[in-house]
Specification:
transferase; 5-stranded parallel β-sheet; kinase activity; kinase; 13 helices; Glycerate kinase; alpha/beta; Rossmann fold; 35% helix
Length: 379
C-alpha cells in the first residue's frame, strides 16, 4: 500500500512539511510497514517556497533586502543550479507575516525587496524564475519592484516617487529604459491563487486592501492610485494589463509581472505540482491524503486540496481531505474528485485549543482513515 501525503500548511499551526510528517505518523500507527511519500504543497502563497524546496531539493539562499516598510531583512529564495531556475516568494520580502497588526499600512508598504530578490537571482545566473505571489503586505501594483530593477517613477516635480500604493496617485512619468537588461531574456512564471483584476470591486484594493490595514476610505484612495499607475503604464507600453485575470494578485504584483516581466500567470498549485512531479507520485499512489486549515466553497478557486483532487481524479485515485474546519459550500469538493473530507476536531473546542493539537489530530485522523480503508468490504 502506497500512501501519498500532500497537504498545504495549516495556518498558524503547522507548515506543510510538519503536517505531512504528522500524517505519516498516523498512517504508520495503523500500518507500521506502510509505504508513505510526503510531498508538502502550497498554492502560491506563504509557504510555497518551503514546499518547492522540499519537493525539488533546491538550495535555500538568502539575500538581505528591504521589507515592506523599508527595513533590512534576510529573505530566503530557492536555486536549482542545473535548471538555472530561481524560486522567489514575494512574501519572503514583502510579506504580511513580517508586520505586526499595528504596522500594516497598505498606503505605504512597498515591493522594493522583491526586486532585490530578482537582482540576486540574476546575479546568480538565473534564466528562469518562478515567482510566488501571495501573502503580501503591499498594494503598490509592483511599483516598488520596478524601482529596484531600475525603472524611474517620477512625480510632477521630476522627483522619485515615494514608496507605497498611495504615492502612485502622484505618478507623472514612467521611464523603463533603465530596467536591468538581463530581464529581457528571463523566463518568468507567476504562481497566483486568485483571478482578480487590478481595479474595481473585485480588484486588489477592494478585496485584499482591508486585510493589509486599509480603511474603506483608503481602499478607494488606493484604487484610484492604481488606476493612475495603470494609465501611465498603458501609455508607456501601448498595452493595458489592468483587466488581466490575476492582475490584482498580491496587491497588483500580477499586473507588474505580466506587463514588465512578460510573466505568464498560472494557478499556483498547478505550477508547484508540476515542479514536485505530482503526476508520477499520483500514478504510484493507492490513496492520497491532502488538507489545509479550512475547506469551503472558496477552496474550489484553486486551493491546494482541490488542485490535488482534480489531478488525482484524472488518474482515478481516491483522495481524502483533512481540514481544520469545514465551511459553507465545502460539499462542492465532492464533484472535484474528492472521495471524503473530514474536520480535525475530535470534540467541541475553540480555535485556540485546536491549534496546538493540530499535529496530534492529523495523526489520529490518518490512523482512523487507514484502518477504515483496510477494512474488508462486507460480502
Amino acid at each position: 500500500m502506497n500512501i501519498l501525503l500532500c497537504p498545504d500548511s495549516f495556518k498558524d499551526a503547522l507548515s506543510a512539511e510538519l503536517a505531512a510528517k504528522a500524517m505519516a505518523k498516523g498512517v504508520r500507527s495503523a500500518v507500521p510497514d506502510a509505504q508513505t511519500h510526503c510531498c508538502p504543497l502550497a498554492d502560491g502563497g506563504e509557504g510555497s517556497l518551503d514546499a518547492l524546496i522540499a519537493a525539488t531539493g533546491a538550495k535555500r539562499c538568502y539575500q538581505t533586502v528591504h521589507d515592506a516598510l523599508g527595513r533590512p531583512r534576510d529573505a530566503a529564495w530557492g536555486w536549482l543550479s542545473e535548471q538555472r531556475t530561481a524560486f522567489i516568494e514575494l512574501a519572503e520580502a514583502s510579506g504580511l507575516q513580517h508586520l505586526s497588526p499595528q504596522e500594516r499600512n497598505a498606503l505605504q508598504t512597498s515591493t522594493f525587496g522583491v526586486g532585490e530578490l530578482f537582482l540576486a537571482a540574476l546575479n546568480q545566473g538565473a534564466e528562469n524564475v518562478l515567482l510566488l505571489l501571495g501573502g503580501s503586505a503591499t498594494n503598490d501594483g509592483g511599483a516598488g519592484m520596478l524601482q529596484a530593477l531600475g525603472a524611474r517613477l517620477q512625480n510632477a516635480h521630476g522627483k522619485p516617487l515615494a514608496p507605497g500604493g498611495a504615492a502612485l496617485a502622484g505618478l507623472e512619468s514612467l521611464d523603463i529604459s533603465g530596467l536591468d537588461p538581463r530581464l529581457a531574456s528571463l523566463n518568468v512564471e507567476a504562481a497566483v491563487d486568485v483571478d482578480n483584476p487590478l481595479l474595481g470591486e473585485r480588484g486588489a484594493s477592494a478585496v485584499f486592501g482591508p486585510q493589509k490595514g486599509a480603511s474603506p476610505e483608503e481602499v478607494a484612495q488606493l484604487d484610484l492610485a492604481l488606476a493612475r499607475f495603470a494609465d501611465i503604464c498603458a501609455s508607456t507600453l501601448a498595452h493595458d494589463y489592468r483587466d488581466l485575470p490575476g492582475a490584482g494578485a498580491a496587491g497588483g504584483m500580477g499586473f507588474a509581472a505580466s506587463a514588465f516581466l512578460n510573466a505568464t500567470l498560472k494557478p499556483g498549485i498547478e505550477l508547484i505540482m508540476q515542479h514536485a512531479k505530482m503526476p508520477t507520485l499520483l500514478n504510484n499512489a493507492d490513496l492520497v491524503i491532502t488538507g489545509e486549515g479550512r475547506l469551503d466553497g472558496q477552496s474550489m478557486s484553486g486551493k491546494t486540496p482541490i488542485g490535488v483532487s482534480r489531478a488525482a481524479k484524472r488518474l482515478g485515485k481516491p483522495v481524502v481531505i483533512l481540514a481544520g474546519s469545514l465551511g459553507d459550500g465545502w460539499q462542492a469538493c465532492l464533484d472535484e474528485g474528492v472521495t471524503a473530507a473530514f474536520a480535525l476536531a475530535d470534540g467541541p473546542m475553540t480555535l485556540e485549543q485546536a491549534l496546538p493539537r493540530t499535529a496530534e489530530l492529523l495523526a489520529a485522523r490518518c490512523e482512523t482513515i487507514i484502518r477504515l480503508w483496510l477494512t474488508p468490504a462486507a460480502p
